[in-house]
Amino acid sequence: MKKTIYFIALITTLLIVSGSLFKIMHWPGAAVMITLGSFSFAFLFIPLIILKKFKEESFSKDQIIYSIGIILGTVLGLGFIFKIMHWPMATTLMLSAIILFNFLYVPAYFISRYNRDELRYSTIINSVMMFSFGSILFAMFELHI
After folding, report:
1. Could you tell me if 22 and 47 are in contact, meaning their C-beta atoms sit under 8 angstroms apart?
2. Exposure pattern of 88-109 as b/e (b: 16+ CB <10 Å)?
3. Ramachandran region, residue 117 (left: φ > 0; alpha: ψ -120 to 50; beta: rest)
4. Bigger pLDDT: 137 vs 62
5. Is the pTM of this model over 0.85?
6. Which of 28, 42, 64, 130 is buried deepest, with most CB atoms within 10 A?
């Protein structure tokens, strides 16, 4: 399982980085590489990571929270694909995923894991990092009211 995850992570990273370079240089094939890399991230890499977590965790609460995480990660990945490819509904997908991530997923993750003494420190660090990442992504949007 670990080798599969590493292989998919490597291929996904290479496709996205190469596609981004091709897009910057206006070379053909950029859209295909970015789309394949993003889809493999959203539909292969994230589910495999969550599946690995399912096998490690025995609490059903944690499994529900990780399921929410996979859905939000997939929607955010799709939003990135839509944004890069200039498809409609990109902003809606990305904003909804980021808002739900910051205000639903991170608090649920924090509350479910904070009460366990062995997970307290890592839970605090992970929650702060996730909220910071989500807030930075949210701040990148120009909201016209």
Report:
1. no
2. eebeebbbebbebbbeebbeeb
3. alpha
4. 137
5. no
6. 42
